[in-house]
């Protein structure tokens, strides 16, 4: 399957309020140099959903060099401000980010159709309200958008909470109703992008490539440096490259390869390994 190269920069867990300004500047420099087809911002833009944090997030988004699709994370809800959390949970998100958190958002670029959904919830029937959930209405919305995609378009789903965990992240939990989501998206989506765990990894689940990015610019590290992913698709080959912040700049460190078997059906390709520094 031929096609133009596609490059998606995947960022997550910016956590303005706990961000490192020098890392944020280095990230913007790296993205401007990369010039990606599109940028996926996978939630947790703020630490406590404060006004100043949203203003800083907005200024960062305004500096991005490519079309960006932005979804909320659990930290973009008022945390312990319970009254606000229940009566006007997304007021600041709407004001500063400008999208409807209850509707799917889309981004189209050359050869890509990406759909973003909000998996953060103001409460849940469990003690850990940081856990997210996807519902049947959201899945139907994704599929309706995909029906409008070109036959060769890469179909991307962007959400904050993960559809895949590694042993290091098992206590965090998958996004609620992940099994239903994977069944509905099977052979309909190519790539599922997320954050929340603050660890970068990727693999294939039910024929879809799942890629998670770490915390791009915050000090809330979980044993890995700040990072972001560059996902490159050329024909039937897809590479997830994780770039770590090395104290000065973002450098390619890990690369995993995936190969298309058929339309919207992927498998693990050549073994991944250390990347040649970019
Ligand atoms: Fe986070
Ligand atoms: Fe999160």
UniProtKB/TrEMBL annotation:
Species lineage: Bacteria, Bacillati, Actinomycetota, Actinomycetes, Propionibacteriales
Gene Ontology MF annotations: hydrolase activity; metal ion binding
Pfam families, per database record: Metallophos (PF00149)
Family: Belongs to the cyclic nucleotide phosphodiesterase class-III family.
Organism: Microlunatus parietis
Keyword set, alphabetical order: Hydrolase, Iron, Metal-binding
UniProt superkingdom: Bacteria
All residue ranges annotated as the Calcineurin-like phosphoesterase domain in the record: 6-198
This protein's name: 3',5'-cyclic AMP phosphodiesterase CpdA
Entry-linked InterPro entries: Calcineurin-like_PHP, CNP_phosphodiesterase-III, Metallo-depent_PP-like
